[in-house]
Amino acid sequence: MARAVFDASAVIALLRDEPGAEMIASYAGDALISTVNLQEVVKALLVRGFTLEITRAMIEALHLEVRPHEIEDAYAAASLEGATRTLGRGLGDRTCMALAISAGLPAITTDQEWSQLSIPGLTVIRAR
């Protein structure tokens, strides 16, 4: 059973063994990620020179439950724009937040600015 929702920055920090990786790793195997955030992770790894095959293997090794981004998810994420506008949060961040809210789970991120958000139903765990 999932215990948290990862945003892209959490997965990238884990894969690169950045500060906070140990805490993030404690949730691996018990975390959700949206297809939108998965795309961000894949892109980041491809940009760093990893092949698609190696990228897939690295992500699959984390045993994340990948959730599709459906129509209602798109509306829920878009509805967070007003609450996130001043911090410049984009599509991926809002998607992660909406998934965390709908799943009733905390969102894990490395993004310091998320702690400044006050969104009903959203619990944020900063990995660093």
What does this structure look like?
The chain is of the alpha/beta class and 128 residues long. It has a single domain (4-126), classed as Rossmann fold. The protein has seven helices and five strands; from the N terminus they run βααβααβαααββ. It has helices at residues 8-15, 21-25, 35-47, 52-60, 71-78, 81-84, 91-103, and strands at 4-6, 31-34, 65-67, 107-109, 124-126. Strands 3-2-1-4-5 form a five-stranded parallel sheet.
Features:
Rossmann fold; alpha/beta; 12% strand; globular; five-stranded parallel β-sheet; 128 residues
Q: What is the rounded Rg?
A: 14 Å
Please name the CATH topology: Rossmann fold
Biggest sheet character: 5 strands, parallel
Instruction: Examine the secondary-structure arrangement and name the CATH architecture.
Output: 3-Layer(aba) Sandwich
- Summed over residues and divided by their number, the pLDDT gives a mean of 96
Helix content: 40-55%
Count of folded domains? 1
Total number of strands: 5
Strand order of the largest sheet: 3-2-1-4-5
CATH class: Alpha Beta
Could you list the spans in which at least 5 consecutive residues all have pLDDT below 50? none
The CATH fourth-level homologous superfamily:
5'-nuclease
Summarize the helix and strand pattern as letters: EHHEHHEHHHEE
Structural class of the secondary structure composition? alpha/beta
| Strand composition percent | 5-15%
**Outline type:** globular
Number of helices: 7
Terminal CA distance reads: 24 Å
